[in-house]
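Quick question about two entries, pasted in order.
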Amino acid sequence: MPIRLPTLAKTLKKSANPSIVAADVPCVLIDEQDAIIANSGQGSELALLWQQRVAPLAALVTRARATGAACDRVELQAGPIFWVTASQSEGGILLIGRDVTVPERMTSALMHSRALLKGLLERACAMAFELDAHGRFRFIAPAEPFDVPSKPWLETPAESFFFSDGRLPGRNPLQALADGVFASVRAVLPGGQRVYLDFDMAVERDDAGEITARTGVVRDVTAEHDRAADARQTTLRLQVESQLTHILNSSESAEHLLERATAALSDIVRADTVWMAAEGDAKAQLLYQYGDTRFDLSAIQAALDTQPGEALVPWPSADHCSALLIPFQRDAGDTSTREGFAVIARDTAQYPWSEPERLLLKSVGATLTAAFLRAKMIDRLSQLSSRDSLTQLLNRRALGDAVNRRLAAHAKVGKAGVLLFIDLDHFKELNDTAGHKAGDQALKEVAQFARDSIRPSDLAGRYGGDEFIIWLDDIDVTAAEEKAQALIDFMPRLRARLSDAPLKLGASVGLCQSRPNLDLDFEALAEKADAALYAAKQHGKGRVIVAGRADEGEGHV
């Protein structure tokens, strides 16, 4: 059993010098003239300290002579460390030391390691914590993680710290059942700071398998998350712009270009409705429509006028539907150069517009504008080759191409339309009685009536001579019959405007409804509608006959 230093000191005080020499601890006996009388076998280093008159040791001896005993820590630079007791003895001052070099340096190294570990931990993570079984903080480091003082949060639920807005993630790291990493968890810290965090969680259980604690290390990955989101946004924008550019360069007709661009937009942002509208001297005109939501184009124009230069304008609508408006301007900020706009809407009660979607639509606005302007240019050029010079309706070739495109589109979604084949009754009599100028005027007025009575999505064309065709998109037969009857009812007013002489000028109409995936050809539909028109003329003219009815004479007189 080791001898305690005070006990050993009492023993050596009463012993002769040989006892000091035989001691198994560092001992040195100093006379009144500060000379070393004796030292133990392990006391050589302590003796060296005295010979060098190390200041702490000299001071210790001075105190011992004055008070009878003293003790202190003595260290040589880069040398041994002793804990020394000095006491008066019969021969002088007895120094008994204990070498504490190894334990002190181990303690110092341990403290340095702990400080180093703390520094590494603080640099490697934003926060470390421990939770009790109920999810409350037991420990938080550092003292102010995310610039939030940690002390007030001890013994409080950790969820209220990391998710202060009350929105818990689907995979909640604070409820982890096993060790694991939870990457890029959206968090809202006290004060509203929004961040993305990586949680490295460890779970402790007792012998019964019950969770007793959870420990976690948190790393702030907001910057990495934002960079990745920006990269994804850039990639998506480039893909969309590439797709729109391909559509822009590969579409041969304005309608085809707008149709494909509209379809691309509806797919990209899950839109329920997409409108493309053109602007001119008068009110806005709808060029292409996808979806059934209705908008007041004049009100939209006014809203865009109040926000010049904005690449994206929100537009609330009814039935939980909200739209985003993209102006098509040759020069940003100058509303006088606005050629038109796009209206993109969806049910925002179920799918609110996200910020990435807004940024995407804003960034592709220039490409959409280029596509829209190209569509208008193509339309102007096509009008020179596809319009009837007298009535300005589509000519027979252009009308057939346009209807065939509608039929192909309807085949994909199971929709149907109705083709109206119109022939003016007693038109030759008008030419013979009132002259060809009156005949031309009659054709122009019928064409104008047709334009005024159809929707932007419908088509009207001159088939040849005094024959016209109207295509009514996505409509039932009853509604189509009403439009045909309106034209027949218009003829008496037209006769009165053309001549004071009694005229028989009228109109007969044959209707044929398309059948999705069956009637995919304009000429076939026109032939069926022409047959119904012939039946109308055979049964007295001035009436509407629907193709395929059992009694070909049935119709409106």
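Here is the second entry:
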Amino acid sequence: MHWMRDTFLTVVVYAALVAAVHVVPVGGQPLPTGLHGADVEEQIELSFREAMEAIYRGRPSEAGRIADELIELAPRDPRSYMLKARVLRLDVADQNFERRDIKPQVNPIKELCDQAVAASNAILQRDPESLAGRLYRGWALMFKSQMHALANEYWSAGRRAKAGKDDLDFVLQRQPTNADALLIQGTFLYFADILPGFVKVARVIVRLPGGNSDLGLQYMNAAAQRQGLSRLDARPLIGVVYFGFEGRFEDGIVEFEKVLEDYPTNPRILEPLAVMNLFFPARLGAELQRTERGVEAHANGPEAWERKVAQRLRFYLALQQMLAGRIQSARQNLEILKQEETLEPDWLGFEVRWTLVNVLLLLGERDAAVALVEELPPRQRESRRLSYARHKSSVASEAESRALLQIQPAVRALYAGDLATAAAGLEAVADVEMPILHFYRGELALLSDEPEAALQHYARANHVQTGRDRWAWFRYFAKARSAEIHGAAGEHKKAAKLLDSATDKHLNKDLVRHVTKARQRYYENGRPGHAGEHVESKSSSEHTRAQSQ
């Protein structure tokens, strides 16, 4: 059942950005519950705005304080509990591959959702037609469904999602342009459509309605075009869908860059950009400093969640540095991560160790690499996976390691756009045969607008058989680059096949491999165009028909 768990995991990994939506309809005023006077309603809206600003500016403790004050101010209002749940959601370890530690983290959130449902039910008891009661209850049920899914409680997740969808349908039939209902329902429609076949069969058991990914994206884009607090969450969610599930990296970059205009150091937005930079040579050098600044800004921050995100950012920074002619800096960052007491998510520790072992082998330091392997229990799966480091053939020769260090300035020039200096530097080590040189010759050809020559060099990087494991990341991105060249030429099947072959079945838990699979689907589907149509004029009957498609 790992594959089914992984599907839910990947959904919630990125949903961390937008764990809940915030309720302000088209006109910018909160949908009133009828529980308060105008002054309290105004304060609720203000509190939501302040809390969301605090979250996006990296101050969730302040957001938590605001939520606690709102619960004290309006204890019968469902929004008070959902705001608190939103804050707690930041600390859930949702990128973990194993799910053992999730339940203690999500249980307090589920309790807050229950309180929001109870408060909504009280509203609906007084007025069964209340749009506010239905909207907030649907929101809470969908949020609780996500928490059940994180804890592998799929039956409960399905039941809550079905009930939540019913409430949101009620709202959208009467107010088709409600931005927040569109965002919640759009998220459900999208992810319900992309689940694998067996899970779709399981939906029948709990009578969970089907999805519609195209309509879901349209709803999300419609929500993003409206004013209100939900707009802060809509753009990152759309970026997440493009980046992590559609494989539309170019569109994802656009969405995340829009968010960074207002929140330039938000580490949760910098993280997907740092990953996508690895796939595009033109971005690799240009964006390196921004990733560095993100790590510096958050590595020692006061918030636990930002330090955890900074760990992942540092890992992607190390990968960028390893590729971009700063291999010693990459080593230093990997060693910093290696010394951290706790790395989160749970796959990060092995990825750091594996990459550091390979960097040491590339530099000719076999004893240091072996020492990292010896630290692991001998029968542990990770130890077996790294056992190649013990073989004498695993380490680069003196000539290879010397050549690697010699070309570092040329590689930096390459990604800075100085192609003549890069070409001269690579030519200076032409007598050494190693995959990394073919990789960089491919990069030089690609950046020189010579895609056919680049393909030949990337192919050679994957055909040299010596020291295969220590070159793994370079081989990986050689295939990724080749896929992009074939994709740009309209050869989508070749592109998808290359990306499929790039991913090692033993190394598939991390974000880089996950989005590679998304990019593979992108090419398998023929590079689908943009979704996100306006639904401004959709009537209630049109909404109903669209839902049934």
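Reply: Confidence is low (pLDDT under 50) at residues 1-29, 530-549. The first helix runs from residue 2 to 15. Hope that helps.
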